[in-house]
Design goal:
With 132 residues, the chain is mainly alpha-helical. The chain contains eight helices and two strands. Strands 1-2 form a two-stranded antiparallel sheet. The longest helix has 14 residues.
């Protein structure tokens, strides 16, 4: 049974507004919208990097210094992926020492309420969530 048929079978079984809403979102974008969002901004480091840039920590060295456990190679990869996805803009300043800053694009700015909600939720748990 393919995914769409399975979803339709579930819809018949569940008969709930929440599931109908979920199914309409899947039909609208062709996949689960949470999965699509996670593909762009998910993972271990992207939300952390994004949050720093929102709060004006926007240079490679600053981010690398503040995020414990994040290698420069992984940071470079994550920044490039977010730039390719249209979330970040990379600006190179032509100075004696090369200066690069990252900023949010208009598309990236639409994610600010989500990251703020994540921060609020994280603060509200008081650190009582077990992490791997």
């Amino acid at each position: 049974m393919d995914r769409i048929s399975y979803l339709q079978t579930l819809q018949e079984q569940k008969k709930s507004r929440r599931f109908d809403h979920f199914l309409s979102m899947v039909h609208q974008v062709g996949n689960c919208p949470v999965r699509l969002t996670n593909n762009v901004i998910g993972g271990k480091w992207k939300p952390v990097i994004f949050n720093l840039i929102v709060h004006d920590v926007n240079r490679f060295g600053e981010i690398a210094h503040l995020v414990e456990g994040l290698s420069k190679k992984v940071l470079t990869t994550q920044l490039r992926e977010m730039e390719a996805d249209g979330i970040l803009q990379r600006t190179v300043y032509d100075q004696r020492q090369k200066k690069v800053e990252y900023s949010l694009t208009e598309k990236g700015k639409t994610f600010i309420p989500v990251i703020e909600a994540m921060c609020t939720w994280g603060l509200s748990t008081g650190g009582d969530v077990k992490t791997p």
